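Field reference: sequence -> structure
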Amino acid sequence: MSQKHEKKDSLGETLGQVISLLQKHQLVENLVQKQEVPKHDLVESLVRRQNQIELQNLLNSLHPADVAHILEALPLDDRLYLWDLVKVDRDGNILLEVSDAVRQTLIADMDSEELLAAAEQLDTDELADLAPDLPKDVLQELMDSLDALNRERLQSALSYPEDTVGALMDFDIVTIREDITIEVALRYLRRLDELPDHTDKIFVVDRHYKIKGVLPLSNMLVNELDNKIKNVMAADVVSFHPDDLADEAAKAFERYDLVSAPVVDEQNKLVGRLTVDEVMDYIREESDAGKFSMAGLREEEDFFSSVWASVQNRWAWLAINLVTALVASRVIGIFEHSIGQIVALAALMPIVAGIGGNSGNQTTTMIVRGLALGQISGSNMQSQVTKELGVALVNGLIWGGVLGGITYALYSDYRLSMVMTAAITLNLLLAALMGVVIPLVMNRFGKDPAVGSSVLITAMTDSGGFFIFLGLATIFLL
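Structure field:
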């Protein structure tokens, strides 16, 4: 079994232990409450304390990310009970690890002093991640408690949109000058308590803090100690600006296999760094958001949220789907007379609509992925449309012919068979066209092309498929 699977199994076992302890705690408390024993309150308090210590010891042995996973997997009452048992000096790190929806429930259970204590454990870049979820009075008090440099850094990080490099960068940077030797640089590094996480290179700057190059740690190990930094550093630096899109930065990290990279301003002055862990977190969040959007959910949803909260999260695209379903039903209503005369049409209609919806969603998925990877632009858009229409035509002729043959075998009507083949082909062409146009139009107007695309495609192929099939049937069969 791989290490990844072992870790997953271990975490599942730990979650099972936590649930078992919570159930045991509830059971014992219920038994104690029902029994009449001397010093009842003292006995109940001792039983509760014993269970709390057992749970605390288990939680304190876990990584903050594992504690976050367990909290997300518990109903609200159990979640808040466990949250009270977590060590105060780990609150901040756990808040960063949990999902946005669960974080809101934990913060709502904390008072101002607890929130400030949790925030004080975090670095400036981590505070920027947590700050939007904090109450305004707590955030202001936190700002006042910071020194001038960290306050300025936090305000700077909060000023950037969440999808930019500036919102992801951190300020824990190690810099050296190019005119010193490797030996001097190593002595300097040894004086530090520890290197920042994900440090694979040192940033080389001049006296004005402008980036001159980067020195990979491997270069320090394989070169002579009396070599100057400028002779062994890499001057060709992959750097970013705070206003750069995080999507583009993520692609660069993948393309160049980066672990860390400098973030510079317009004057090429070093203002921060971007690390692979922040990029990975951003990619995961965007991936999760895309999945929710494709399903018509407005945001991530707590599994144990209230019924009303879930209804609010899901209603928008359901309302749109209702409208499109009504449109499709009216299309069918136009051809009630045709359906009444040829009953077979009612049985065949869903096939035309269903295969069109599936094909359209395949096309949309490819286009959304191409947009996300930056592979689709104005110069190749026409070729993409042509290609998708070509694929739809071939698939339409093949599968339309197959379904036409099945239709003839069932109903012994060659005209109905030909109508079925033509309807499948035309609806697949419509699905391909809409599968390209809908995400491109949404992207053109600055909207996420993944949001609700499947709902719109299904609506178009349902209504279009019904209209094409019943229209052809009315023309050629009646």
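Note: Residues 1-6 have pLDDT under 50 and may be disordered.
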